[in-house]
Amino acid sequence: MQTKKVFSFIGNVIFVTTIGSATMVTSKGKNMTRKVNHTVEDIIINRSSRYAMSGESISDAELNQLLEAARWAQSSYNNQPWRFIYAKRGTKKWDTLFNLMVPFNQSWAKNAAVLMVVVSKNTLDFNNQPSITHSFDAGAACQNMALQGTKQGLVVHGMEGFDYKRAKKDLHIPDGYTVEAMFAIGKPGNIEDLPEELRAREVMSDRKLITDFVFEGEFK
User: Fold this and answer.
1) Residue-wise over 39-71: b if at least 16 C-beta within 10 A, else e?
2) What percent of the chain has pLDDT over 70?
3) Distance CA 162, CA 104 (A)
4) Phi, psi of 88, deg, nearest 5
5) pLDDT tens-digit profile of 181-216?
6) Can you list the domains of the chain with their CATH numbers?
């Protein structure tokens, strides 16, 4: 059987996808490979939270594609509890979102085109009762957005390294909503332009085996 290889170019990185694996090759020729034990779609293997971004802007159309993907996520009672607060580079609210992040995340996210805070509504719309899965549902929307970003050749990097209390205050988020995460979104940049301590992190990280987190019948 002939091996299938698909080459895709994102910034200075070449993604080589074969049946059962994905390899990221940097401009310096360093291979970073993911291997799967069961066949899944290439877009799932190729998604990664990269740090290097170019500082280029993205269009409203590109951003809306990401948000459209998020829109179609699953949620309990179709409640769709996710809310997204964003600012584009160079706009009035950019500094407000940028200043929420810890210095480490500021060091690389400064080159993003868009910063985004993800919020979830804590109650169900139809009866105003607490929603147990509001955070889970918002996470599903974020994964849709990240996968769509991979399809579009964009970096969609989620993070928890920011001031949650300040976000609620500075972004005027009302009671009854939970601040969940931040994202930096942009076009891929050169790994060589990252601070030296970050270059080693620009890899396609591995994952646990299925047997590490799946149990039949009861928790083990």
Assistant:
1) eeebeebbbbbbbbbbeeebeeebbebbbebbe
2) 85
3) 10
4) -90, 150
5) 999 999 999 998 888 888 888 888 889 999 999 999
6) 5-48 (no CATH), 60-198 (3.40.109.10)
